[in-house]
Structure formats: C-alpha cells, structure tokens
Write a structure and sequence with these properties.
The protein has one helix and three strands, in the order βββα. By secondary structure, it is of the alpha+beta class. Strand 2 and strand 3 form a beta hairpin.
Length: 84
C-alpha cells in the first residue's frame, strides 16, 4: 500500500473555549494511493490542537496545526504499512 500526502491545508481554527493559549482546528489532508492500477484520492479532515507560545503570530499557529496533522498522517501511513 502506497499512500502519498499530496495536499494539506487548514480548514478551520479557533481558540479553545476554556484552555488559555490553546488553539484547536481542523486540517484537510488529501492522500492518494494506487489500487489495481487506478489512483484513488482520499480527503481527510483531521482535528488538531497546538499550544500558542509567546511570539507566535497567526501564520505560526496555522503552520503548527498543519505540521501536527502531517505527523498524524505519517503515523497513519506507518500503521497501514505495517498491516500490509
């Protein structure tokens, strides 16, 4: 099985309603894989959160959310690769 991450983008984000400096969001990830010679696309909406630190602007927070989601996708790919 060969899943490839081809696109990742922040879909939404908001400050956590109760935890100070916590930002939650959803990241849209698009993956492809080849099945019987045909490309299949999978769109995932991955929930993620980050702790805002001093000096982080909105762009840093967005990037941190996407990086966290990319790590989740990497773990998923590793797990699925072990199962194959």
């Amino acid at each position: 099985m060969s899943l490839e991450l081809i696109d990742i983008a922040l879909a939404e984000r908001q400050d956590h309603p109760r935890l100070e400096n916590r930002v939650t969001g959803k990241v849209r990830a698009v993956l492809t894989e080849m099945i019987d010679g045909r490309e299949q696309r999978h769109e995932l909406l991955i929930p993620a959160w980050v702790q805002r630190e001093d000096g982080m602007d909105d762009g840093d927070v967005d990037l941190a959310l996407m990086l966290k989601a990319a790590k989740i996708v990497a773990r998923l790919k590793a797990r699925l690769g072990d199962a194959a």
